[in-house]
Design goal:
The structure is a single chain. Helix content is 57%, strand content 15%. By secondary structure, it is of the alpha+beta class. It has one domain: Arc Repressor Mutant, subunit A (Orthogonal Bundle), CATH 1.10.10. Strands 1-5-2 form a three-stranded antiparallel beta sheet. It has a two-stranded antiparallel ribbon with strand order 3-4. The longest helix is centred in the last third of the chain and has 17 residues. The two termini are 23 Å apart.
Length: 99
Amino acid sequence: MDLKKLIASTGRQKILKELSKRKEMRVMQLVQKLGSPYNEVNRNLKILETEGIIKNYYPKQVKHSSVRIITLNDCSDRTQKLLKALRDLDEEKGPVINC
């Protein structure tokens, strides 16, 4: 998927902005912070993961359920380009995202 399509989704923009503020987040923290349905957030996370923008891992079992942790793939040029595009867009609207 090209970068224009990746950034076209406001859901993916919100996810990238939240992840750029933190080193990592649990999926359910992200769902709560965004106020979006789990299915929508998860769909966008799968797209970002497939495109190499984010990584996820399962640190351990917690009371018989998996906790998935999401992080930005900071080493990816595509991730850096997306974050720069978001910062540029935000400069037009207001405050800059700190990465």
